[in-house]
Write a structure and sequence with these properties.
The protein is an alpha+beta fold. The protein is built from eleven helices and 16 strands. It has two domains: 155 residues, Creatine Amidinohydrolase, Chain A, domain 1, CATH 3.40.350; 229 residues, Creatinase/methionine aminopeptidase superfamily (Creatine Amidinohydrolase), CATH 3.90.230. It is 32% helix and 21% strand. Strand 5, helix 5 and strand 6 form a beta-alpha-beta unit.
């Protein structure tokens, strides 16, 4: 379908959110059964949203103060921050009869120590009772991320705790049509923000000003969260620092930007590179090197290809002047993306040769490459969905040629 309106309406089926909710829960429950778990307990906010189709805003992202419990044949229970329960019951009818106060968290240990451990014990006892009612108390409980006092309390209750993170990530490998459409809408919002860079970036602006400009436009267009904006320019562009600063743009600077934003639960990871004023021959060469590495990999995206085959087309750490693939990690990279910023599978020379994974139809990837030379660096990232006979590029901002800023609205040559 691609992109339509950003709003659900009474007169068109755009994104079928009811189907999206049911598909995500079904896939999760199928994986719980496949992995032989009695139940799955998730604390990560992306996992909670995937399973329950609920969220609490950004302030809760790192608190470990919400959770969901689900089994292969029992619908999820949501343990919610107490003051949010009544609004969830009113607005989330698909789970309104299964929302309870979360009593096992202590805001990352910030409560008095005695309270931290007592709450962990009480929540573990509560979970043991539910698992017993479900008849799975003797089976493994998968947990993704949590606090040490709670792990100890579960063990004291005789509950076998195992890695649930893999169980959560496996169902997300293959995206449904609704998921792909949401990812593409999220991408379209980022592209509108990149246009602001083309038309506004100029000598004298600071990286952080561009950061703010991007965030404003992204929120205006309906994104609910921005997890990251990297803005990197000039002599900061080599080596790649993965951040932003108060550096002021100068004529002739290369400028690359990464956006990780979220629209209705679905993430982007999207780098583009620009230059302030006309590019030099060296800058064009630097840019073309990064571009060619990216699309040499993209050409291989199709079902049946392994992550090792893709990683092989990228330069080794030694060719980049680095000592190991661990040191070179994240310079040439591919990663799944969707309801989480990083999803399976991940493509890297660091581990893909020894542990290859096979591409399947419906996977969505962000492929990103970097090249730097004598103080100029270029970073490019595009997003693709694997289709039956190859791939479809979801990202559409023109990237074949290095784009100069500022622009008065010139039309770029099509890739």
């Amino acid at each position: 379908m691609g992109t339509l309106g950003t709003l659900a309406t009474d007169c068109e089926i755009r994104i079928d959110y009811e189907k999206l909710r049911k598909d995500r829960l079904r896939k999760t429950q199928e994986q719980i059964k496949k992995d032989g778990l009695g139940a799955l307990l998730a604390f990560d906010h992306d996992a909670i949203r995937y399973i329950t189709s609920t969220k609490l805003n950004d302030w809760m992202n790192n608190k470990l103060a919400r959770a969901t419990l689900v089994s292969a044949d029992r619908d999820p229970i949501l343990y919610e921050a107490g003051s949010a329960i009544e609004s969830k019951k009113a607005l989330c009818p698909w789970i309104s009869d299964r929302i309870f106060p979360f009593t096992g968290g202590a805001m990352r240990g910030s409560f008095p120590k005695a309270v931290v451990y007592d709450q962990a014990r009480q929540f573990a006892k509560q979970l043991k009772g539910i698992l017993t009612d479900w008849g799975v108390e003797k089976e493994p409980l998968g947990v993704d991320i949590t606090e040490i006092p709670f792990i100890l309390a579960l063990q004291d209750e005789g509950i076998k705790v195992v890695d649930g993170q893999q169980t959560i990530l496996e169902p997300q490998r293959i995206k449904t049509k609704e998921e792909v459409d949401l990812i593409e809408m999220s991408i379209a919002i980022d592209e509108a923000a990149f246009w602001e860079v083309v038309t506004h970036a100029k000598p004298g602006m600071k990286e952080n000003e561009i950061n703010g400009l991007l965030r404003k436009r992204i929120y205006e267009l309906g994104a609910e969260e921005i997890q990251n904006v990297n803005v990197i320019s000039g002599n900061r562009s080599q080596p790649h620092p993965h951040d932003a600063s108060d550096r002021m743009l100068r004529m002739g600077d290369m400028l690359y930007i990464d956006i990780v934003s979220v629209f209705n639960g679905y993430h982007t990871c999207y780098y583009q590179t620009f230059v302030i004023g006309p590019p030099s021959e060296k800058q064009q060469r630097v840019y073309k090197t990064a571009y060619d590495w990216l699309f040499d990999a993209a050409k291989l995206l199709k079902p049946g290809v392994s992550t090792a085959e893709i990683a092989k087309v990228w330069p080794s750490a030694q060719e980049l002047g680095l000592s190991s693939e661990a040191e070179a990690f994240a310079l040439q990279l591919g990663h799944g993306i969707g309801a989480t910023h990083w999803a399976k599978p991940v493509i890297s020379r660091w581990f893909s040769f020894d542990h290859p994974e096979i591409l399947q139809e419906g996977m969505v990837f962000a492929l990103e490459t970097y090249y730097g030379e004598d103080g100029d660096g270029a970073r490019i990232e595009e997003m693709f969905v694997v289709e039956k006979d190859g791939y479809r590029q979801l990202s559409k901002f023109p990237s074949k040629n290095l784009v100069s800023c500022p622009s008065s609205g010139n039309v770029f040559p099509r890739d």
